[in-house]
C-alpha cells in the first residue's frame, strides 16, 4: 500500500492529533490535571516574572536567570497545553502541516533554551561559591544580556534547519498523529521518504545542546561540592548548599522526565502508546508548574516579596 502511495504524489497538508491514543473516552478526566497544571504554571511564572522585574532588590544575576527560566516555562506550556485541552474538550485535533511544524519548532527550541538557562544558573552558583569576590565583575548586566541572546540564538539556530528537513518530505502515509502535540520524529515517521537525515540531525541537536548541558552542569556541581566541603565554617557550608538546593530540584525535575521519556521511546517498544504520550506531556506540564513553587518556597527573598505582593496588609 505504501509503495502505491509513494508514486501518487499525494502529500497530506492537514493532520489529526488524537490526544492520548487509547484513552479517548477518558479525555474529559485527563483534561482536569492538564488544566489545573496550566493555570498554576501561568499564575506562578507570571507572578515570578512580575516580582523579579519590579523589585530592584531582586535585580541580581541569580534572579534575572530565574526570570528567563519562568519566561521559557510560560512559552513551553503555552505551546502544548492549550492544544491538548482543545482536543480533550472539543475534539479539535485538526492541524495544518505549517502549524504543526511551527508548534514543534517552538517546543524544541524552548526546551533547548530552558536547558541552556539551567546550565547558566549552574555557572552562576559556581561563580558565587568558588569566586565570590569576582561575582559582580563577572556577571554584569551587560554579560547577562549577552548570555540571554546567546541562549536564544543557540536554540533557534539549531532547530531552524528542522523546518526545511520536514518541509522537503512527502507525507503520504496516514495523517493521524497518535499524540497531543507535534514532534519532529513523530511527524517525520509519517513520510514515505528517507528520514535518516532527520534522525541523525535530531541526534546531533540532542548531543550538542541538552546532553552537553547536562555534562557541563554535572562538572559545575562537582566543582561546587569540592569548594563547599573545603569551607571550614559549618554554617557557611550549609548556607552554600542551601542556595544550590532549589536549583538542583529544578534540574532533576526538568531532565528527569525528559530522559525517562526518551528511554521509553527508544527501548520500551512493548509499552502502550498512551504511556509514551503521557510521559512526553509530563515534561511540558510538571516543570513549568513546580519551578515557581520550588523557588518561591526555598528562596527567602522571593517568598518575602510574594507574600508582600499577595498579602500587603500582613506584617
Automatic annotation (TrEMBL):
Q: Where is the G-protein coupled receptors family 1 profile domain?
A: 44-295
Key words of the record = Cell membrane, G-protein coupled receptor, Membrane, Olfaction, Receptor, Sensory transduction, Transducer, Transmembrane, Transmembrane helix
User: Is the keyword Cell membrane in the record?
Assistant: yes
Q: Which domain of life is it from?
A: Eukaryota
Mention any one GO cellular component term assigned to this protein in its UniProt record. Answer: plasma membrane
Q: Where in the cell is it found?
A: Cell membrane; Membrane
Q: Which Pfam families match?
A: 7tm_4
Q: Does the keyword Chloroplast apply?
A: no
Membrane topology reported for the UniProt record:
Multi-pass membrane protein
Q: Mind listing the GO molecular function terms for this protein?
A: G protein-coupled receptor activity; olfactory receptor activity
Residue intervals passing through the bilayer: 28-51, 63-89, 101-123, 144-166, 199-228, 240-263, 275-295
Q: What family does the entry list?
A: Belongs to the G-protein coupled receptor 1 family.
Note the PANTHER family from the entry: OLFACTORY RECEPTOR (PTHR26450:SF386), OLFACTORY RECEPTOR 56B1-RELATED (PTHR26450)
Q: What does this protein do?
A: Odorant receptor.
Instruction: Report the protein name in the record.
Output: Olfactory receptor
